[in-house]
Structure formats: structure tokens, C-alpha cells
Design a protein that fits this description.
334 residues, alpha/beta, TIM Barrel, 8-stranded parallel barrel, 3-stranded antiparallel β-sheet, 11 helices, globular, binds fe (ii) ion
């Protein structure tokens, strides 16, 4: 599927920095000299990969300078043991971001205090370059659901999500990014999703994590226009981008696409990433893969495409600076 390239890059009317809080400005993304980007001086951020346990030894053998990894925060809410030990080894070698899936930020009850305390302990120890969660709900009546459920975009849901983000940020002492959901049904809503997310960001000071696969699925399942959706988001708030693969529903086929993260990124989503980077400039891009896990080398190959898309949006580094994009020197990892 083509057509995103016809949209003029940088066509949004919003001014970078408009409505930013001081905390937001501190973490604004800056171009780096090594073909990647940095966030708040935290280190190089180019294209990253979701860290999955079977890949850890392959990850530790990597020497790619701009590589970084994202983990699901809840997977490390343990008192000790091999999983935390592995993450410590990875963190010694690479920047790591924390991506939460269990806070239920917009649910009928605010995020659970013990959950937030566990996130804070991890954030304090690992000092992730980014912390993110989802603009969804997944808990009610003391029951946690397996899915990340979209919110009806009403004034009441907006207030709940703002309170959830405020509590999360207050508890961990950090700004977070919130991610747009994958939609499977069209709600009768009072606000469009970009306006809803922009408003939460404006009221809480949080940033946005734009999952372009989720935008594509929402377009196919519910009929939104992807370029219009992306242009309506506050571009200066978008500090990370996700790409992932989807699968067609077992019963309905292509009429309903499911955000499984169990397939390679589709051509349509790669095109949407190009469109997004053309509009925003370089941002950290993260390749998500959770199911039907291929080898780490196969993911690195897929990641290469994200790196190429990012490199197109960076200034030409010149021959002297280009040297810095090679492998990092040997390092010792415990
Ligand atoms: Fe995502």
C-alpha cells in the first residue's frame, strides 16, 4: 500500500515546544553525530528492539553503537533471580527503556499503589532512558484483563486518564510517554483520538509514544486516515515510535487485523514510519516482536530498515563523523 509519501514533510502547523512544560523541554530529542539520536544526554538512541529472554546472550554479543532495548516493565517486578540478573547485564552494555503494560492508566480505579512502587524500584535501579505506558484500561473490580482496552474518548475518560498519568509520574518521579492503542471497534466518542492524547499530554506534561502499527490497524479496522491522525498529534510530544507486525483475525480474515506482534512489520507500516519521520524528524524507533519469535539476527536485519529510515532524516554527518557510526570498542560484560 502506498501513498504516504505524497504528504509534505513538516506540514503540521503546531510549533515545536508549544505548551511544553520545563520537564518536557529537558528531555527533548537531539540529533547525535553517530547516526542515532540522544534523549536528554542519556546516550545514543537509534533503532531499538524489544528485549526477549531467548535473545539475551546474542544481545550481549552485539557491538552496534546505536542499539538499545525496551523491556516490559512488569516482567521484571520480581525480588531477584536470573531475569533481573540478565537485565542488569544488558543495562551495563546498552540503554534500556521500560514499557509498562499493566498500570491500567485510564481504568475506573487509579493505578494500584503497589504496582507503582514496583515500577519506581525498577526505574531507580536501572535508570531507563524512557518510561512508557498505554493510554488504555485493563483493570476493573480488582480483576486484571489480558488485553489493553481502548477508552471511550469522553470527558470522564479524559479525567481518569489524566489522573492515572499524574499518579504514575508522581509515584516514579519521572515523565512518561503514553502510547496510542490499537482499535478494533469505533466508539461514539466526544473527541478524536489525537485530540484526546494531546489533551492528556498538555494537562500532565507527559510525552507520546506513537505506535504506527496501531495507527495502521485502527485505520484498517475502523476507517481512520493514518496521515491525518499523525498530523493531528502534537509532534513535539512524540518521543518514541513503535513498529510491529500484525496478523489477520482467524475467523474474519483481513476484515479485522489483530495487533499480535507475531509477524514481520508490513510494507504499509514501514511506509507509515517513513511518513512519520519525514514529518517529525528523527525519533527513537523500536521494533516490537512478542510472538513467533525469530532469531535475534533476523530481528537485527529487520531493525536495519528502521535504521535506514532514521538515517534519511539526519543531516549528512560528513566523512569524519561517519567513522563514529562503526562498532563500539570491545567491552567487558559480566
Ligand atoms: Fe507498541
Amino acid at each position: 500500500m502506498g501513498g504516504y509519501g505524497r504528504i509534505v514533510a513538516g506540514g503540521a502547523s503546531r510549533q515545536p515546544g508549544a505548551g511544553s512544560t520545563p520537564a518536557h523541554r529537558e528531555s527533548i530529542l537531539l540529533p547525535a553525530l553517530d547516526g542515532s539520536s540522544t534523549i536528554g544526554g542519556a546516550g545514543p538512541i537509534g533503532a531499538g528492539i524489544g528485549l526477549r529472554q531467548p535473545h539475551v546472550e546474542s544481545v550481549l554479543a552485539q557491538r552496534e553503537r546505536s542499539l538499545w532495548f525496551e523491556v516490559h516493565t512488569e516482567n521484571y517486578m520480581v525480588a531477584g533471580g536470573p531475569r533481573l540478573a540478565q537485565l542488569r547485564r544488558v543495562r551495563e552494555a546498552f540503554p534500556v527503556s521500560f514499557h509498562g503494560v499493566g498500570a491500567s492508566l485510564g481504568g475506573p480505579a487509579p493505578p494500584e499503589p503497589r504496582h507503582l512502587s514496583a515500577v519506581k524500584r525498577l526505574v531507580d535501579e536501572f535508570e531507563p532512558v524512557l518510561v512508557s505506558e498505554h493510554a488504555v484500561w485493563s483493570r476493573a473490580g480488582g480483576v486484571w484483563f489480558a488485553d489493553l482496552l481502548p477508552l471511550p474518548r469522553t470527558g470522564d475518560a479524559l479525567r481518569r486518564l489524566v489522573e492515572g498519568v499524574d499518579r504514575y509520574q508522581g509515584a516514579i518521579g519521572r515523565r512518561i510517554l503514553i502510547e496510542n492503542p490499537a482499535n478494533y471497534l469505533s466508539f461514539v466518542s466526544e473527541m478524536d483520538e489525537p485530540d484526546f492524547l494531546n489533551e492528556v499530554a498538555a494537562r500532565t506534561g507527559c510525552g507520546l509514544l506513537l505506535d504506527v502499527n496501531n495507527v495502521y490497524l485502527s485505520a484498517r479496522n475502523c476507517g481512520i486516515d493514518p496521515p491525518r491522525y499523525i498530523e493531528a498529534l502534537s509532534g513535539d510530544r512524540i518521543e518514541e515510535i513503535h513498529v510491529a507486525g500484525y496478523e489477520a483475525d482467524e475467523n474474519l480474515g483481513e476484515a479485522l487485523l489483530i495487533d499480535t506482534h507475531a509477524a514481520p512489520v508490513s510494507e504499509a507500516v514501514w511506509e507509515l514510519l517513513d511518513f512519520t519521520l519525514a514529518r517529525l524528524g528523527p525519533r527513537p524507533v523500536l521494533l516490537e516482536r512478542d510472538g513467533k519469535l525469530p532469531s535475534f539476527e533476523a530481528l537485527m536485519e529487520e531493525r536495519r530498515r528502521a535504521g535506514t529510515a532514521l538515517a534519511r532524516r539526519l543531516p549528512d554527518p560528513g566523512p569524519e563523523r561517519a567513522v563514529a557510526s562503526g562498532p563500539v570498542p570491545e567491552r567487558t560484560v559480566a
